[in-house]
């Protein structure tokens, strides 16, 4: 079974030896936003998913099928799917 993007993100952090705030800073996110992605409470929009991919290698498409109710728009706000 494939890992969810959240699981992939946690695995990347563990393998890189990064704490939550370090991972958020490395990718370029506010820690509170990063927490929502990490816990699956929000799906990153395309721009955010690109940032994540550049640093972690997690594919953008992985987030599209994660099944979370909220997505982030290009403006940084969020809305329902």
Structural class: mainly alpha
Order of helices and strands: HHHHHEE
In what order do the strands lie side by side in the largest sheet? 1-2
Count of individual beta strands:
2
Question: What value does the average pLDDT take?
Answer: 85
What does this structure look like?
This protein is mainly alpha-helical. The chain is 56% helix and 7% strand. It has helices at residues 5-16, 20-27, 31-39, 46-56, 60-64; strands at residues 70-72, 78-80. Strands 1-2 form a two-stranded antiparallel ribbon. Helix 2 crosses helix 3 (31-39). The chain is globular, with a radius of gyration of 12 Å. Residues 68-76 have low confidence and may be disordered.
Give a short overview.
It contains five helices and two strands; from the N terminus they run αααααββ.
List keywords for this structure.
81 residues; 2 strands
